[in-house]
Amino acid sequence: MTAPVNDNRTGTCPICNKEAAVAHKPFCSARCKDVDLGRWLDGGYAIPAVELPDEGDLEEAMQDAFQSGDKRDPEF
Ligand SMILES: [Zn+2]
């Protein structure tokens, strides 16, 4: 396994082609990191921030809770 990577260099930033910074590898700065992230989000790769449960499932779960509260399991 041979890596043509120089120890002193971290490679080039894929955004602006400047020398990347160790702290922000493989980018040169936090800004370019954000740019890259923005590209992902703009590219239709949308990830919902919060996944809400289906309302039907929630109702069902609540009904289950009520029912199990009414008739108690004698073994419990
Ligand atoms: Zn950059």
Describe the structure.
The protein has helices spanning 30-42, 55-70. With 76 residues, it is mainly alpha-helical. The protein has a domain at 9-46: Erythroid Transcription Factor GATA-1, subunit A (Erythroid Transcription Factor GATA-1, Chain A), CATH 3.30.50.10. The chain is rod-shaped, with a radius of gyration of 26 Å. The mean pLDDT is 76. The site of zinc ion (ZN) has 8 residues, from loops.
Q: Could you tell me the CATH topology label of the domain at 9-46.
A: Erythroid Transcription Factor GATA-1, Chain A
Distance between the ends: 61 Å
Strand content: under 5%
CATH-defined superfamily of the domain at 9-46: Erythroid Transcription Factor GATA-1, subunit A
Q: What's the helix count?
A: 2
- Which CATH C-level class of the domain at 9-46 is it? Alpha Beta
List all distinct small molecules, including ions and cofactors, that are bound in this structure.
zinc ion
Q: Sketch the topology as an H/E string, one letter per element.
A: HH
Residue stretches low in confidence (pLDDT < 50, at least 5 long) are none
